Batch of 3 targets.
Target 1
Amino acid sequence: MSQSTTPAEKPKKRRFYHNLKDAYTMVKRTFGWLGWAMLAIVVVVFGGSILWGITSGHWISYPFLGLMLTTLLCLILLTVLLNPALYQQIDGHPGAVGAVLSRQSRGWIVSDTPAVVTQEKDVVWRAIGRPGVVLISEGPSNRVQKLLDNERRRIKRLAPTVPIHLVQYGHEEGQVPLPKVAKQMRSFKNVLNKREVPMVDRRLATLKPPTAQIPKGIDPNRVRPSKKAMYGRG
C-alpha cells in the first residue's frame, strides 16, 4: 500500500520590507516614540513638499522629491537607532558579547562558541584580527581577570609573538560597556598583515577549551542571542 507524501514547504523568501519590518519592531521595543518621530517626518517633510508644490506650481515634482526625502530620513533614523536598541535589549544577557562580535565580521575571525565557559557562567570570547588576539570576558571583574590571564598564557605558548589584548565587558569600574566593545577593538593598533591573521587562527585552533563542567542553563553552541529574537521573530 503506497503512502502519499506531501512535499516539504519551502521557506518563504525574505524581501527587503520584511527586514525593515523586523528592524522597526526591534527598535520600537526600546524607543517607543519611533512611530511618532516617523509620523512627524512624514507630516513636516512630505506635507511641506505638497504645500510647496501647490503654491509654486510644481505639484508633481516637489511632492515626489518630498516623498523620496521622507523615505530617506525615516531609513536614516531607523539605522541610527538600530545598534543602540540591540545593545540595550541584549545587555546583561549571556552571549551579549558574541552578538556584538558577530557584527564585526570584516577583518576579524570570531568563533561561534566561547573560548572559555565556567560553572559560574563567566565567558571569555576570542577574536583574531590585524591587532592580534582580543580576549573579551563576560562576568564580574574579580572572577574573569583570572580567566583572561589563564587564556592569555595558553595562547602565548602557541603564538608568543602575537599581541594579546584583554577586554572586560560589564558595568563595573574598569570594564567596557557593551556599546563600546566594538570601538575598543578598533582602537588597537594593527600589527599583523592580512595573510598572518588566518595563520594565527589555524595555530590557535589546536587549543582545546579548558576542562570545566558546562553550567546548567548555558549551551556553548547556542550562547549567542537568537537573531530571530533580536529582530522580533522569536
Note: The first strand starts at residue 109 and ends at 110.
Target 2
Amino acid sequence: MSRVLVIESSARQQGSVSRQLTEQFIARWKQAHPSDDVMVRDLAAQPVPHLDADLLGGWMKPADQQSEAEQAALARSNLLTEELLAADVLVLAAPMYNFGIPSTLKSWLDHVLRAGVTFKYTETGPQGLLSGKRAFVLTARGGIYAGGNLDQQEPYLRQALGFVGIHDVTFIHAEGLNMGAEFMEKGLAQAQAQLAQVA
C-alpha cells in the first residue's frame, strides 16, 4: 500500500480546472490502486501562512526559548512536513497565477523545504532526503506556456522538488483554457488523456 498526498492550491472551489484534474486523477488512481491511502490538503480551505519571523524562530530557537507563536508555527510546519515524509506519491494541483504558482503553494513549500529534515547541506552542496518518492503536477493555464520562457511554474517546481530529492516528476498541463472554446477543449482533452495514462 502506498500513501498519496494531494495538495490543492486553486483559490476557486467551483469551476477550477486544476480541481477537476485532481478529482479525475484521484478517481483513476484509486481504481488502479484500490488499497492506497489518499489524503487531500486544500490550501484554499486551510491556508498556510507565509514564512515569517515566528516560523524562523520555531526552527532556529531552542524549545525553551520559543514564544507561543513560534511553537505554534513550528507545530504547523512539523505537521505539513510529516505528511510529506509519510507520502510515497505527491500530487500538486497548481493553476498558473501571473506566470507562477499560487502563493498558497509557495507557502506550503516554505514550510516543508527544511534543512536537516527534507534536505541537508554537505561538503559537496545540498542533498535531498526524500529520494524514492514520485510526484505529479497538474497545472491549469489560460495561455500556452509549456517549454517557453514565460513558464516559470515547471522549472521552479522541478528545482524545488529536486532540491529535496524528488526527481521522478511528471507534469500534466491543461493549457489554452482562456483562448476560446476550441483551444480549451483541446487543452483539456490532452491533459485528461495524459492523466489517464499516468494514473
Note: The first strand starts at residue 3 and ends at 8.
Target 3
Amino acid sequence: MPIATVNPANGETLKTYEAMDEEELERRLRLAEATFRTYRTTAFADRARLLNRAADLLDEDRAEIARVMTTEMGKPVRQARAEAAKCAKAMRWYAEHAPELLADERPAESDVKDSGASHALVRYRPLGPVLAVMPWNFPLWQVVRFAAPALMAGNVGLLKHASNVPQTALYLEDLFHRAGFSEGCFQTLLIGSGAVDEILRDERIKAATLTGSEPAGRAVASTAGQMVKKTVLELGGSDPFVVMPSADVDRAAEVAVTARVQNNGQSCIAAKRFIVHSDVYDRFTERFTEGMKALKVGDPLDEETQVGPLASEQGRADLEELVDDARRGGATVLCGGERPDGPGWYYPPTVLAGLGREMRIHREEAFGPVATLYRAADLDEAVLIANDSPFGLSSNVWTREAAEVDRFVRDLEAGGVYVNGMTASHPAFPFGGVKRSGYGRELSGHGIREFCNITTVWHGA
C-alpha cells in the first residue's frame, strides 16, 4: 500500500510520500535509544508541563487537523473536531494523574516484616522505546491514548501509522516537538507494514502496541513472542447491543443508530449486532430502521453530514461482500444494502435481519455502517447470541432490571459492559478486550502500567 493521502470522498490522490530508507530508520532508532537514557530520569512535573503544552497546541490546531483527518480517511468533520478535543482531554488527564497512578506502592507492614525486610516497596519504571502500530480509523485518538501515558511514564515512542493517514502521522510528531519534547521522545516512521517485523526484532525496541486487524495483531504478537517483548493488542470487535423488555426502547433505538454509524461505522467498539427480546423486537426494529434511513450521507466536510465515505475502496468492497453473502443466505435487507452511484467510497446505512450462523457477517467484523438484527426469546438466549462471536471487545445492554444487569455483567464475554448507553472510551477507564479482540489494556492506571517495569525494592532488616 503506498504511503499517500487519497481523499475517500472522490478517490483523488492528494499527496504521496517516499518510505524512509534504512539509514534514516537507523538514525531514528539510535535517537530513540539515546533520548530514553535521559528522558527516563525527568520529573513528572516536567513531563506534565510538556504534555499540557501539547494539549494546548492541539486545541489551537483543532479545526485544521480535523480537516486533514477528514480528507485522509473520511470521517465527518464535526466528529474529527470532537476527536481532537478528546485527545487534548486525555493528555491533560494523564498529565494530572500520572504521578498518583505510578506512585510507589507500600506492601502491608505485616507482609514486610514476614519477608524479613526492614521496609519494601513496588516502583514503576519505564521500559524504553515502544513501537506503536496504529490504524487509520481514529488517526489521532488511537495514537494519543498510547502516547500520553507512555510519555508520562518516561518511555519514548516510535509510531508506524497506517499508510493512508501520513499527514496526520507527521502532524503528531510535529505536535510533540512543538510542545517541547525532545526529538527522540516521539517519532513518526513513514514505512510500509513490511518493515515492522525487522524493527520489532531490533533490541532497542523494548515493547510494542498495536491497534488494528487480527492478522496484523497475530504477526506482531508472533514476532514479539520470539523476541520475548511485551505487547498490547486491541484488535477487531463485533459488539452486541442487547435490548430487554424493561428498557426505554425508543431511547435504545435512538442511541443504537449512533452506536452503529459513529465514524462511518468504522470503529472496533461500534455496536454491530443488535440482539432484541421478542417482546420489543418489532418496536425496536421499526424505530432503529427509521433512524438508519434518516441519516444524512454525503461530503464529510459538510457540517450536516452524519455518514461519510468508507476510508478505502477495498474496505467498501469487503463490506459489500459480507452483505451480499448474507443476502444470498436468506437475510432480509430492511434498508440500504446497495452501493450508490457516483464518486467516492460511500456505502449506505444498512440493516439486516434474519441472520444465520453460517453467514460470514455472523462471525466476521462488519467495518462500516451495516447492522445485524437478532431476535432473542429470553435473557438466556440473548447471552448465548451475544457470546456467539470470536470477538469480545465491549458490549451494550439495555434493561431496568438489576438482576438482569448482574447477569449480563457476570456472563458477557467482553472487556466492557455498558448499561443503558453506548460504549465510549474515556481516559479514566481501562479499555481492551478478550478472545480475538486482543489482550492488555489501554487508558486508566492499567494502561499506563502496561509498559512499565514493575520493580520490587526490598531492604533487609
Note: DSSP finds 15 helices and 19 strands in the chain.
